[in-house]
Prior knowledge:
This protein has helices spanning 19-31, 45-56, 88-98, 120-129, 160-170, 188-195, 230-242, 261-269, 313-320, 342-352, 384-396, 416-422, and strands at residues 2-4, 10-12, 35-39, 60-64, 67-71, 82-83, 105-109, 132-133, 141-144, 151-154, 177-181, 200-205, 208-213, 223-225, 247-254, 272-281, 284-292, 300-301, 324-330, 356-359, 363-369, 377-378, 401-403, 426-428. Helix 4 packs parallel to helix 5 (160-170). It folds into two domains: 2-16 and 228-428, UDP-n-acetylglucosamine1-carboxyvinyl-transferase, Chain (Alpha-beta prism), CATH 3.65.10.10; 19-215, UDP-n-acetylglucosamine1-carboxyvinyl-transferase, Chain. The N and C termini lie close together (8 Å). It is α/β, with parallel strands linked by helices. The strands form six sheets. The protein has a four-stranded mixed beta sheet. Strands 2-15-17-16 form a four-stranded mixed beta sheet. Shikimate-3-phosphate binds next to helix 1 and helix 5.
Amino acid sequence: MRAYPSPRFGGTAKVPGDKSISHRALILGALAVGETRISGLLEGEDVLATARAVEAFGANVERCGDDWLVTGAEWISPAGPIDCGNSGTSARLLMGAAAGFDGLEATFTGDASLSKRPMKRIIDPISRMGARFSESESLPLTLTGAGLGGIDYESPVASAQVKSAILLAGLRSRGPVRIVEPTPSRDHSEVMLLRFGAEVLADEAGNGLAISLGEKRTLSATHIHVPGDPSSAAFLWAAAAMIEGAQVTTPGICMNATRTGFLEALHEMGARVTLDNERDQSGEPVADVTVGHAPLQPLHLTPDRVPATIDELPLLACVASFADGESHFEGIGELKVKESDRLGAVTAGLAANGVSCFPESDALRVLGKGSVRGGGTVMAHGDHRIAMAFLTLGLAAEQPIRVDDSSAIATSFPDFISLMQSLGGRLESGL
Ligand code: S3P
């Protein structure tokens, strides 16, 4: 796929449903008593892997018009392996959710990328609660569920997947369940658990934020309206911020403060950002977001801001190459264990397109010059966000940017190409 300079980029476009919220709606629906209706579910490969998995665990899942219906069940051992594909969220959240079903046995598998990603961060707390795992620190892994005890866990990483796995396991545990994170990660599980009727509490801990489950841990079916994914809208916003004269509006985007780091960074760099029609949707704040071009200033991103920006960091590094001066991203070591080594991939991709950037062990400096030469080929390493970040950069660069393989885009944003084209983005496949 090649992205060509697109000087007339702009307009209004609706991005698909939030990936994190979609996974959670399916999993909580599959654990709840009754039938849950989900409107606006993201139908990307990652979320569909979760849908198939909860069905294999015994829930009933069906598409009904534009909505999805999930009827919860006592989870059973699936007939075959649970294939999580490329999706870390599926693997980690499902292991937590399944862990509390005494005697359930399930083998989790994934593609080559997921099979390399760290699972010890889940195995440690979930086995401390009483579940058993086969002897490995990566997929494939076999989990045996048990009657779980409580846990008071200080997580070494700010990870919503770790936090959510513990909370989901905790739903079926006896005893107190509490988790402290070094920096608060996305809190969609907490928001949605409340929506399903569970009791979730948050309080300040000396070294971070503590999340605990209360006494009420039974879930009752509900209706979840999934808002637009800010991590997908980010590509449209970035194009608008980088292309002179461009402006885009994306209606109905999730504005949860644990997810707005990228938008805040764009605003701080000088892009024009406005929010309209701010409202609540199934407990999540939502707004129509407009972003317009302006000359960009460099950014200094400190480690405390990383969790709210985590999935957009490769894209933010691309935007920083349009700033006038050096941007500095600190505390970004987690990028190395995402769908690819994103620190390595983004450094190589920028360098191939004439941008000077300097990776450090868990930091990156990008020397912005106000414009990008382009003309290079980027290896996406099968990573959806690397492919989309560089195709977006290619719309704003002086020469086309080629991405070796864009097939992974279907995991999170199946309509990315056609949606960018509808806004005037020139994306073409072939040579
Ligand atoms: C996610 C949490 C984050 C994020 C991922 C989705 C989630 O991962 O990068 O894309 O839905 O909980 P970590 O928990 O590993 O930080």
